[in-house]
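Researcher: Following up on the earlier apo prediction. This time include the ligand. It's coenzyme A, with the SMILES given after the sequence.
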Amino acid sequence: MITIRPAREHDAELLPDIEQSAGQAFRAVPELAWLADGENVSAERHRGLIRQGACIVATDGSDRPVGLLSAEIDGGILHIWELDVRLDLQGQGIGRALLERAIEDARRGGLAAITLTTFRDIAWNAPFYGKIGFRILKDIEVDQRLADLLRGEAAHGLPVNRRCAMRFELE
Ligand SMILES: CC(C)(COP(=O)(O)OP(=O)(O)OC[C@H]1O[C@@H](n2cnc3c(N)ncnc32)[C@H](O)[C@@H]1OP(=O)(O)O)[C@@H](O)C(=O)NCCC(=O)NCCS
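Model: Understood. Below is the ligand-bound prediction.
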């Protein structure tokens, strides 16, 4: 039994392990397998974002997080930093449920749009977000904030030509 609820500060300690597990999905993509061994977002950073109120988790029957959507509101836009579901529970609709809840909350909060950056060509990245209604932004539509994020990702070794910014319009 999975429940979607707002993240609470005490969840933060458990979230790096979920990201670690979720990232193992990239072992299926040889040239991106290194991502599975990458640094995870720290519990401290999660705690800071949770305090701002836009993070949600998927929990099991014991109220233990098994998935997370970490996000932040900036200038009327919800930006999703992380979406992760524990590897053994992927493919069961939990990621979609987290995303749909974030969309619902953002709409209720009167926000204009939701943004994120992701891989263009990985089935559980851009094509997944696309099915839910996110659109890949053309270069000319990418604003300074998203351009800076993409540049930062490139500096961390992510392949620039496979990355993209996406946006979901709420208005
Ligand atoms: C992205 C992620 C959170 C999705 O969560 P999930 O619970 O597995 O997703 P769902 O079960 O809701 O599936 C949603 C869609 O994703 C796609 N998908 C998910 N896993 C997939 C896989 N292994 N292969 C192909 N497609 C997949 C499918 O299109 C699916 O849609 P469908 O049910 O209509 O076929 C999860 O795959 C994950 O943690 N991945 C590793 C971390 C990551 O890439 N995060 C996103 C960074 S932008």
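Model: The two ends are 33 Å apart (CA to CA).
Researcher: Noted. I'll compare it with the apo version next.
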